[in-house]
């Protein structure tokens, strides 16, 4: 992606260099006053009026036209720079998303792995009661089935870890298999909402709009410059026939934009409409970006509350319920109570991992909107992984 943007910048830079150059000169060759009748017909050396000419002609576009072309090329170069910067932000954001995916998958695997011991205890308890005559074979099979189902969930989490690791390597290159660095503090916003709303035009999705508008304005100026006449100058030598003296010649030409109403004026109107369209589209893009920021902040704040509720209340409740149900089964209660509690605990832990993933993603969407910020510091997952 960056290589493509760099190539676009090189192209825009080359266009800027040549934007102010004059057109190539034209070499002219010809014969003038060639007889077409009589004994000298179509001969070039017998009639004194016949001349063999060679010359050069140079077009001289108006200064306003050349200035407008240069401004247009400069705006295109600035647009290429802005798009390259926006692409760099997109890559940072994509890398951070991949990091969060792997981090959340590892959290899910760890949370589910904590349940292995209890799953083993349930199998032992059902077998002990079966041997003692107070249990049933169906309970023993149900406990074993629950243990295997847990292992299936853990295996699924391992697959997600591998997939997320592949996504991370896409952006950071080959990485050794190791534990991730600690995550940043997702409970702290990387920017204040008001700060982002006040600085929309510097954010990745809007970075190129200044240059786009400048290019459209330069196109309007170029269309207006078409109403200014272009000049040309021509010079050369002519060899005359029948021993007459050779001559030189010099010509100056000027364009005559006499019918601008159906030509140049319509071009100006068309380019002005293009400029108005770009300004309107830019304003719509600014509103969309402001809406996106408000939605991302609302999502991030809501996920903070969900994370706290799951971590501090729902996870402990589901753990205590499962342990209590297993202890009750050891005392003679039904195994179904433990199976239900265990299923709910697994779902709660998976829900918690999913909330962590969405929470981290919401933080990432806010963290990589502005270039040249302090997000890429020791608290950034990108910096931590690429420098370890």
Write the layout of secondary structure elements.
Elements: H1 2-19, E1 26-32, E2 51-60, H2 63-113, H3 116-132, H4 137-172, H5 193-197, H6 209-225, E3 231-240, E4 247-254, H7 264-330, H8 335-367, H9 381-387
Antiparallel strand pairs: 1-2, 2-3, 3-4
Helix pairs in contact: 1-2, 2-4, 2-6, 2-8, 3-4, 3-7, 4-8, 6-7, 7-8
What does this structure look like?
There is one protein chain. The protein has 388 residues and is of the alpha+beta class. The protein has 2 domains: 23-60 and 230-262; 96-226 and 268-387, Outer membrane efflux proteins (OEP) (Up-down Bundle). The protein has helices spanning 2-19, 63-113, 116-132, 137-172, 193-197, 209-225, 264-330, 335-367, 381-387; strands at residues 26-32, 51-60, 231-240, 247-254. A 4-stranded antiparallel β-sheet has the order 1-2-3-4, with no helix packed on it. A hairpin with a 6-residue loop joins strand 3 (231-240) and strand 4. Helix 3 packs antiparallel against helix 4. The radius of gyration is 38 Å and the shape is elongated.
């Amino acid at each position: 992606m960056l290589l493509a943007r760099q190539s676009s910048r090189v192209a825009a830079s080359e266009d800027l260099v040549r934007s102010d150059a004059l057109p190539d000169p034209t070499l002219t060759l010809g014969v003038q006053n060639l007889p077409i009748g009589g004994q000298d017909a179509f001969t070039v050396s017998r009639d004194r009026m016949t001349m063999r000419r060679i010359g050069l002609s140079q077009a001289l576009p108006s200064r306003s036209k050349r200035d407008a072309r240069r401004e247009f090329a400069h705006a295109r170069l600035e647009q290429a720079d802005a798009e390259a910067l926006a692409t760099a932000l997109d890559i940072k954001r994509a890398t951070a998303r991949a990091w969060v995916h792997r981090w959340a998958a590892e959290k899910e695997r760890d949370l589910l792995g904590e349940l292995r011991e209890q799953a083993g205890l349930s199998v032992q308890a059902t077998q002990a009661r079966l041997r003692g005559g107070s249990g049933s074979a169906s309970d023993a099979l149900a406990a074993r089935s629950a243990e295997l189902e847990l292992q299936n969930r853990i295996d699924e989490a391992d697959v997600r870890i591998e997939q997320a690791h592949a996504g991370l390597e896409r952006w950071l290159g080959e990485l050794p298999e190791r534990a991730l660095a600690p995550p940043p503090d997702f409970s702290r916003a990387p920017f204040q909402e008001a700060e982002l709303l006040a600085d929309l035009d510097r954010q990745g999705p809007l970075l190129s709009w200044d240059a786009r508008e400048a290019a459209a304005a330069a196109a309007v100026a170029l269309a207006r410059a078409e109403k200014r006449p272009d000049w040309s100058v021509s010079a050369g030598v002519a060899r005359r026939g029948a021993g007459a003296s050779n001559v030189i010649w010099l010509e100056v030409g000027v364009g005559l934009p006499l019918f601008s109403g159906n030509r140049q004026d319509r071009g100006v109107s068309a380019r002005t409409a293009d400029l108005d369209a770009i300004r309107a589209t830019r304003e719509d893009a600014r509103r969309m970006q402001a809406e996106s920021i408000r939605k991302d902040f609302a999502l991030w704040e809501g996920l903070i509350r969900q994370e706290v509720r799951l971590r501090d209340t729902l996870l402990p409740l589901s753990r205590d319920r499962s342990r209590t149900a297993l202890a009750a089964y050891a005392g003679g209660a039904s195994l179904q109570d433990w199976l239900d509690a265990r299923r709910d605990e697994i779902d709660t832990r998976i829900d918690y991992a999913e909330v962590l993933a969405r929470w981290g993603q919401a933080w990432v969407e806010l963290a990589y909107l502005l270039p040249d910020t302090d997000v890429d510091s020791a608290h950034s997952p990108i910096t931590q992984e690429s420098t370890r």
